[in-house]
Amino acid sequence: MKNYILSLYILLFTAGAFAQPKREEIKALKVSFITERLSLTEKEAQAFWPIYNTFEENTMLIKHKELRSIRKEIKQNLSTLSENDAKALLDRLTMAQDKLQKENKILISKLKSILPAQKILMLKIAEEDFKRKLFEQYKRHRPEHQKK
User: Fold this and answer.
1) Residue 77 is part of a domain; what is its CATH number?
2) From 32, 52, 129, 147, which residue has the greatest number of CB atoms within 10 Å?
3) Are 55 and 124 in contact (CB under 8 A)?
4) What's the structural domain count of the chain?
């Protein structure tokens, strides 16, 4: 009986270990990519990552809760929306986009006190490069998954 429980525990533990969400894997790659691109010193990295992680969490909430909800509502109801409802959705969309812009301004403002302006500009380029590489990798692996 002990062997059965131990085997079950090991199976569940290893299955859980392999089921690490892709999001966490991507986040780890992004951290490594940005750290390398910006050549952050240890002191800079200690100050930078808490600020950047807060920014990422805030923008993720806006993108995945607010914007996703608005886009879903638009897709589902576009053909039946009244002009007033369409204006209300457009206002909500604009407000969510304004929130994203505000988060970017807050990030830059906070980073100015810990990083030189050139590294902040490099961050913006590194973010775009990371997104591009991620998308290219997705496109390369996509046909493999469709064949199976």
Assistant:
1) 1.20.120
2) 52
3) no
4) 1
Are 109 and 101 spatial neighbours (Cβ–Cβ below 8 Å)? no
In a domain, 59, yes or no: yes
Asked whether residue 8 is domain-assigned, the answer is no
Cβ-contact 46, 115 below 8 angstroms = no
Amino acid in the structure at residue 118: Q
Residue for token pair 């050549």: 39
**In this structure, is residue 16 part of a structural domain?**
no
pLDDT tens string 73-101: 989 988 898 999 999 999 999 999 999 99
* pLDDT recorded at residue 8: 37
Contact at 8 Å (CB) between 96 and 73? no
C-alpha span between 50 and 40 (Å, rounded) = 14
Note the pLDDT tens digit of each residue in 16-60.
444 456 888 888 999 999 999 999 999 999 999 999 999 999 999
Q: Is the pTM of this model over 0.85?
A: no
Look up the domain containing 128 and give its range.
Answer: 21-147
Residue 63 gets which letter from DSSP?
I
Report d(CA 92, CA 60) in Å as an integer: 17
Domain assignment present for 2: no
